[in-house]
Specification:
This protein has 73 residues and is an all-alpha fold. The chain is rod-shaped, with a radius of gyration of 27 Å. It has helices spanning 3-42, 49-52. Helices cover 60% and strands 0% of the residues.
Length: 73
């Protein structure tokens, strides 16, 4: 095999690998976007929200505020 044939073979192999990998990346990206949409939709259901977001459980708990003048003393 001469050098030109080796270059063609490597270019063809690279093209094939790139095509396969890009197909997997597209599938993964689509799956992640679908999961994001489903999770955001599930957060709108009140019964499911506490199980998905631990921060939701803290909503509405009053925080003891310090007086503004405390930091100067």
């Amino acid at each position: 095999m001469d050098e030109q044939d080796q270059v063609r073979q490597y270019v063809r192999l690279f093209g094939e690998c790139f095509r396969v990998l890009s197909k997997w990346v597209k599938r993964a990206l689509i799956a992640l976007v679908v999961m994001l949409i489903l999770m955001q939709g599930a957060l709108h259901i009140k019964a499911i929200r506490p199980y998905l977001s631990p921060v939701y459980k803290l909503d509405g708990i009053p925080v003891k505020e310090q007086d503004v003048k405390d930091w100067k003393e």
